[in-house]
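Predict structure. Chain length: 600.
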Amino acid sequence: MNHKKPSIRETLIGKYNTWKFDKKMCLFISSALMISVVFLLVLTITFSIRSIVKSSKRLVEEKVQTMAYSTENNFNQYQAIFWALMIDADVQDYLQNDEPYGNFLYMQRALENAFVMWENMNFIGILSEDGTKSYVKGNSVPSNEQGLQKQIMEEINNSIRLSRKSTSMRTMTYNTTFSRTNQYELMIYQPVFSGTKLDEYIGLLYMNINDPDLGQLLEENEEHPDTYNYFLYDDGTVVSCSIPEKIGTREDVSAITGNEGSYWKNGKFYIYRKLKNWNYTYVTSISLYSMCRDNILSIAVSVAMMLILTAIMLKIAVRMIHRAYMPWENVAAVMDTVSKGDLSARLVQEEQDPDMERITKGFNSMMETILSLMEQVKEEQKQADQIRFNALQSQIQPHFLYNTLDCIHWQAVMDGNTEISNMVKALAAYYRTCLSKGRDIINLSEELAHIRNYLYIQQMRYGNTLTYEVVSSEEFDHVRIPKLTLQPLVENSIYHGIKVKEGKQGHIAISVAAEGRDVKITVQDSGQGMSEAQIASMNDRISDYDENMGYGVHNVNRRIELLFGERYGLFYHSNAAGGVTVEVLIPGQDWVQRREDCHV
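Prediction complete.
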């Protein structure tokens, strides 16, 4: 037969079910604590990163604003120099004069004055429209002036965006083309137009400058190596960048809208600002890692501290659970001892919390009660055994008894002794009821017939000293009652009530009446009676066996309680005749139906 292999889930559940309660609680607390810590860590790190990014973004924006503003001021100053030279009459005359060296000295002086104004200027030059006239002034002028002119013409024709139709358009390059030391230098070009003829292009002014702001762009950021700063032309061409390899390449500028702003792209944050009056945009890109790197250590320390605190809390929680569970472990151990039959086991009352103290006291009290009930059961069993023993002793062969009584009856009839005949008949009926074919519960009519026979026999014995009456109606004939319920009560009335009056006549009255849905049988005598204290004691001790009270009354009451419930039984009180009255309360005729309804 193939057995299905249990799944991993079923295996884990089966293993979990074998754990003790404290281990389950430890798992639950640990899981809840770890889930809470992970959630808190994610929440903390998320808010920390958002705060760091927001702060870094603000700092980068301020840096971009500052850098763009500084560069813009420098470019405007460069433009002011160009404007001063463009409208200079000597420069205009030099470029428009047909003589190769017309007004050269005056033009030379104008360029030298402009050169002296800027310490970081490498050289400044002028070039006529046809290329026949040129002049360069500076400290770092390339050695071959003809070669310089050729390179400038190539820059104008191939690289720079120079408009010859507008005086407001200027352009620049940032490379090592004209550098003697192979360093990046700013080259600015400004077209020169005639001051007398509209839109007539007459030449070109150019400057080569070591710009400090653009120089900062080339410095590698050792702290943030993946942070880039660069200038873009309007079409996306990189003019200057901290990564030299990017100079001359093109960037996607579709996300750049307006004069300033920011955007995320490919995990990097870009911040840009356009330069006023220039077709250039200053851009800084920084990765999320660079933004958070300076704070990663503090975040890691915080996470480590939180994990350490979590471990400490977890250890404390586990110890507290084990300590709280220890008393329950003791309870389980004591219960195991009790289950093995040692009913003397008790819980030790040490320093305990209120709940465990109540459980300890309740358990110990319960065990004491169980022992008391067991002793009571033993005593009741002893009484039952005694009753059965007495019953066995009193049993005689019914056929032999009946045959003997029948012989006595007919002998009395033959001798004409009616009293003996009647007495023998009553005795036979009495024993017939006692045996009653082994039945324990009989009809009330049978019980009353039995007690009439018993009273007739007693009356024959005591003569006129005893009188009696039994009053009942047919409606109570089929009420069920334990056999021999009334005989012990009547016997007590005779022997402890009437007989002790020493020759004085006594009377026993038995009556049956309805009490709601129940039936009350009253046995009343006119005997010696009992004091109120004796009657109270009788009622208090009637459910408990007492040798002074005897088996009869106790057994009658106990049988009724066991059969019908504790609300039924005997109740004693004094009567107006000076004797004692005992009331027997039993269920009515519908008791059988009521019992069946309860079982249903």
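Summary: The radius of gyration is 63 Å.
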